Amino acid sequence: MAPSAVSPTQQHSRLAFASKKAQDAVAVGDRDSGLTKPLADMMGQWDNFSFAPIRESTVSRAMTHFTDLDAHAETDIVIIGAGSCGLSAAYTLGTLRPDLRITIIEAGVAPGGGAWLGGQLFSAMVMRKPADVFLREVGVPFEDEGDYVVVKHAALFTSTVLARVLAMDNVKMFNATTVEDLITRPHEQGAEGVRIAGVVTNWTLVSMHHDDQSCMDPNTVNAPVVISTTGHDGPFGAFSVKRLVSMKRLEQLEGMRGLDMMRAEDAIVKNTREIVPGLIVGGMELSEIDGANRMGPTFGAMALSGVKAAEEAIRVFDL
Ligand code: 48N
């Protein structure tokens, strides 16, 4: 069947929310040579080529995001984990609520979690309908196979959603940064309860060495709403729900059950929810609390769980 057509104008309109500066950067010049004219004119002219002058300290000041850390010390919504669920939540939130400041904390240098590949290191990504609705929303081409669709490379999905999210003026991602604890406040209904009021962060390499180097204290981000999508595996998988158990706020984790695609994906999307006041859990981290089945190499539930997590976050934020 013909691949889904996302017209250039649709693609371009998808960038409509990007800041004007960012949008100019992707403005398309005349393409009679296949490249934009400025780039085409550069080719073959390398003998007299040189970059504009710069001083190293200028790069250092431009690169270090201390002003971002300052701006995001107080934020509206934190998303822990920039995997397929977290990125889908960020896209949906950033699009629906450009008035909100959204802070993504991602432990990996490379965001994307498990969504750079399909399954067993093969590259194609399968999503069951109706998750194709999200692919059309963000402009990811796919092959329509009836009850499911195939994105020719998982990285095409992840890089497209990542590009959309990072182009948003109200979203900032701090990668190579780990949430190593949750900020809590006594919950109105009884001292044993807590509500979540933000996250505790550190550079990931620091977080991984607390056992062999003491006194590397963390940083903090205050937020009334936190979405946790930390997945079910990896060094920090299922972080928030494991922390809720260790702080005796959750009795125990039911633990992810065996693979059953038909049950797993519906359960993850339907049960994406606020677990404790101020904390919404989605994606595969949820399977660890609920004892939901795993779904294996199909990603529709991740995308739509992210959409639902965004909807829940807006509901909680607007309370
Ligand atoms: O991709 P993941 O691991 O998690 P999800 O829920 O977005 O997607 C899950 C999906 O990839 C699957 O597992 C598929 C569907 N397979 C299912 C199956 O049955 O096998 O992304 C989580 C992200 C990663 O990028 C981590 O680096 C990050 O969260 N992360 C954290 N970032 C900051 N602080 C933390 N404490 C933390 N923990 C994890």
TrEMBL record:
<feature type="binding site">
    <location>
        <position position="217"/>
    </location>
    <ligand>
        <name>substrate</name>
    </ligand>
</feature>
<feature type="binding site">
    <location>
        <position position="232"/>
    </location>
    <ligand>
        <name>substrate</name>
    </ligand>
</feature>
<feature type="binding site">
    <location>
        <position position="284"/>
    </location>
    <ligand>
        <name>substrate</name>
    </ligand>
</feature>
<dbReference type="GO" id="GO:0009228">
    <property type="term" value="P:thiamine biosynthetic process"/>
</dbReference>
<comment type="function">
    <text>Involved in biosynthesis of the thiamine precursor thiazole. Catalyzes the conversion of NAD and glycine to adenosine diphosphate 5-(2-hydroxyethyl)-4-methylthiazole-2-carboxylic acid (ADT), an adenylated thiazole intermediate. The reaction includes an iron-dependent sulfide transfer from a conserved cysteine residue of the protein to a thiazole intermediate. The enzyme can only undergo a single turnover, which suggests it is a suicide enzyme. May have additional roles in adaptation to various stress conditions and in DNA damage tolerance.</text>
</comment>
<dbReference type="GO" id="GO:0052837">
    <property type="term" value="P:thiazole biosynthetic process"/>
</dbReference>
<dbReference type="GO" id="GO:0005506">
    <property type="term" value="F:iron ion binding"/>
</dbReference>
<dbReference type="Pfam" id="PF01946">
    <property type="entry name" value="Thi4"/>
</dbReference>
<feature type="binding site">
    <location>
        <position position="114"/>
    </location>
    <ligand>
        <name>substrate</name>
    </ligand>
</feature>
<feature type="binding site">
    <location>
        <position position="179"/>
    </location>
    <ligand>
        <name>substrate</name>
    </ligand>
</feature>
<feature type="binding site">
    <location>
        <position position="85"/>
    </location>
    <ligand>
        <name>substrate</name>
    </ligand>
</feature>
<comment type="similarity">
    <text>Belongs to the THI4 family.</text>
</comment>
<feature type="binding site">
    <location>
        <begin position="106"/>
        <end position="107"/>
    </location>
    <ligand>
        <name>substrate</name>
    </ligand>
</feature>
<protein>
    <recommendedName>
        <fullName>Thiamine thiazole synthase</fullName>
        <ecNumber>2.4.2.60</ecNumber>
    </recommendedName>
</protein>
<dbReference type="InterPro" id="IPR027495">
    <property type="entry name" value="Sti35"/>
</dbReference>
<keyword id="KW-0520">NAD</keyword>
<keyword id="KW-0539">Nucleus</keyword>
<dbReference type="GO" id="GO:0005634">
    <property type="term" value="C:nucleus"/>
</dbReference>
<feature type="binding site">
    <location>
        <begin position="294"/>
        <end position="296"/>
    </location>
    <ligand>
        <name>substrate</name>
    </ligand>
</feature>
<feature type="modified residue" description="2,3-didehydroalanine (Cys)">
    <location>
        <position position="215"/>
    </location>
</feature>
<keyword id="KW-0408">Iron</keyword>
<keyword id="KW-0479">Metal-binding</keyword>
<dbReference type="InterPro" id="IPR036188">
    <property type="entry name" value="FAD/NAD-bd_sf"/>
</dbReference>
<keyword id="KW-0784">Thiamine biosynthesis</keyword>
<dbReference type="GO" id="GO:0160205">
    <property type="term" value="F:cysteine-dependent adenosine diphosphate thiazole synthase activity"/>
</dbReference>
<dbReference type="GO" id="GO:0005829">
    <property type="term" value="C:cytosol"/>
</dbReference>
<keyword id="KW-0963">Cytoplasm</keyword>
<dbReference type="InterPro" id="IPR002922">
    <property type="entry name" value="Thi4_fam"/>
</dbReference>
<keyword id="KW-0808">Transferase</keyword>
<comment type="subunit">
    <text>Homooctamer.</text>
</comment>
